[in-house]
Every structure is written in structure tokens, then in C-alpha cells.
Amino acid sequence: MQSAASNYRALATLEDGSCLYQGCTDSNAFNHDPSATLSGECTGVVSGCMDSAALNFYEDANTDAGGCVYAGCTDSTRSNYDPTAPIEDGLCEPLY
Fold first, then answer.
1. For 1-96, where are the E strands, in sequence order?
2. Exposure b/e, 23-56, CB count within 10 A at least 16 = b
3. Whole-angstrom Cα distance, residue 16 to residue 48?
4. What Å distances lie between residue 78 and 54, 55, 65, 89, CA to CA?
5. Cβ neighbours of residue 39 closer than 8 Å, sequence gap 6 or more
6. Left, alpha or beta for 2 (phi > 0: left; psi -120 to 50: alpha)?
7. Per-residue pLDDT for the chain (96 aa), expressed as one digit of tens each?
8. Which phi and psi (to 5°) does residue 6 adopt?
9. In this predicted structure, what is the pLDDT of residue 8?
10. In the chain, which end has fewer C-beta atoms inside a 10 angstrom radius, N or C?
11. What CA–CA distance (Å, rounded) separates 96 from 92?
12. What is the structure's pLDDT at 15?
């Protein structure tokens, strides 16, 4: 009697607990649906940096793996020095 169920019957008059729901039943998939009882299409987990501002941005990632890398000023004598930047961005500013 649940209209969202795959085996929904509009003429049913008694709920018998036999409703089936389609979705990804693979618990390791990105789109796992714990309420699904019928296996549907699953999407694999693709880990990577999901920040488009990062140098190692991975467009196909659907799970943030952390570890994004950003360019910055690597000159410690400059006002905008970034000690976490592994790559120079060419935008270092002088000290004032």
C-alpha cells in the first residue's frame, strides 16, 4: 500500500509488510540506500580532492579524500607567506 514501493498496488486494502523498494543495496557504494530491498543502480566511490580551487582538483570525485593542494606564496620574507603552500603562485607581496 506504499505508493513509493516497487510492488505498489493501488487496489490493495491490507498492508501486509511486503513492500519492496529499489535502490543501491551495496553498502560500499557511494549511493547506498539502506532502505532498499531490491538492488538498483549503484555508483562507485571515487575519492579525490573536491575543491575546484585546489591544484589537484579531481572533477570525477564524489567523496572528498582530503589532501587538496593549494599554491601560495612560499617566500618567508613576504607578507602573504603561506607555510603550507608547496608550490609558488607568483603572487608574493612585499613586507610593509
1. 22-23, 38-39, 47-48, 63-64, 71-72, 87-88
2. bbbbeeeeeebeebeeeeebeeeeebbbbeeeee
3. 45
4. 22, 22, 31, 13
5. 22, 24, 25, 26
6. beta
7. 566 677 767 667 677 777 778 889 999 999 998 988 888 899 999 999 999 999 999 999 999 988 899 999 999 999 999 998 999 999 999 887
8. -70, -30
9. 67
10. C
11. 12
12. 74
90 Cβ neighbours under 8 A, 6+ residues apart: none
Identify the pLDDT of residue 4.
62
Question: What grid cell was written down for 2?
Answer: 506504499
Whole-angstrom distance, CA of residue 17 vs CA of residue 25: 19
The per-residue pLDDT for 39 is 80
